[in-house]
Amino acid sequence: MTSRPGVLAPDPLTLADVEERARAVLSPEVYDFVAGGSGGETTLNANRTAFDRCHLVPRVLSGADTADTTTTLLGVPASMPVAVAPMAFHSMVHPDGEPAVARAAATAGVPFTASTLAGRPLDELSRADGDLFLQLYWLRDRARTEWLIDEAERLGARALIITVDVPFMGRRLRDLRNGFAVPAHAAPVNLADAQRGVGQSVGGHAAAVIDPTLSWSDLEQVRRRTRLPLVLKGVLDPADARRAVDLGADGLVVSNHGGRQLDGAVPSLLALPAIREEVADACEVLLDSGVRSGTDVLRALALGASGVLLGRPVLWGLASGGEHGVTGALELLRTELEVSMALAGAPDVAAAGRLGVRWAPGTNEREEP
């Protein structure tokens, strides 16, 4: 966002405004790394199209003059049905990195998910006075994988979120064209020294450290090893959702990795209703990929999600204003959600889940009652 000399730029009114502020301060290659998707970015764009085609059916005469956004996510109280999604390399967008995001999440009253590829140690992130989830990639170094699980338990993490849709990185053409590599100041410190990948391409680094042979039997071992709530992130098929529940998963994240893995994969929002129908109330069902407003959160709730993981907008807030920028982005999202819920006649999160939706013509999804 630009402004005339001597004229203070207005406060952002939408998360798109936050992104524009971030774009103005980031190098083009770093902006592309965060914003981009894989392949021709078909799925990246389809995520947004799905939200735009999902129309809420508001209820009237609810008798409520406010909307209560509070809820619980994986047993953790939250001020709204939102958690910060796991994302790598925070320090490449702002020197304060993950600790600033963790503190902002604590201030906002939402859980923060630390990535395996975080640039700061887990014990530092656990001191943010908020609720911590750990996202886990299945590493070739099994001893390091087990150490991360044990460390999460020791530090009081509230859930373990295993990403299951990255046997290797999708072909992210923006990064390839830009020659983007893992920056030294944002290197993943929770990996062994030799695995931090400084100077490698992101795809090359992932191939070196992530084990593509992760299977259901490995997840069974994790389930036996840890007492933490176990969540699988990257599920799009109802059959996989059912198998995860049968294995003992406590939660699922319906996700196509923000359009960064299989280009052409179904938009997460379109996959959500069938997965919720398959698992019913057997586990929590969260959603990510494409959430850009409080109305998007409400749409996800109406389609059966317990809540959402918010990704790129958090990094845009961090880039444009550090901890204060993330706090502002989360507060903006909460304001939008409160207004959308009130206008839809949903006085609380449970009522939001009972709203109907109608899909725009041409959307390959059945209408919800």
TrEMBL record:
<dbReference type="InterPro" id="IPR037396">
    <property type="entry name" value="FMN_HAD"/>
</dbReference>
<dbReference type="InterPro" id="IPR000262">
    <property type="entry name" value="FMN-dep_DH"/>
</dbReference>
<keyword id="KW-0288">FMN</keyword>
<dbReference type="InterPro" id="IPR012133">
    <property type="entry name" value="Alpha-hydoxy_acid_DH_FMN"/>
</dbReference>
<dbReference type="InterPro" id="IPR008259">
    <property type="entry name" value="FMN_hydac_DH_AS"/>
</dbReference>
<dbReference type="Pfam" id="PF01070">
    <property type="entry name" value="FMN_dh"/>
</dbReference>
<keyword id="KW-0285">Flavoprotein</keyword>
<comment type="similarity">
    <text>Belongs to the FMN-dependent alpha-hydroxy acid dehydrogenase family.</text>
</comment>
<keyword id="KW-0560">Oxidoreductase</keyword>
<dbReference type="InterPro" id="IPR013785">
    <property type="entry name" value="Aldolase_TIM"/>
</dbReference>
<protein>
    <submittedName>
        <fullName>Alpha-hydroxy-acid oxidizing protein</fullName>
    </submittedName>
</protein>
<feature type="domain" description="FMN hydroxy acid dehydrogenase">
    <location>
        <begin position="7"/>
        <end position="362"/>
    </location>
</feature>
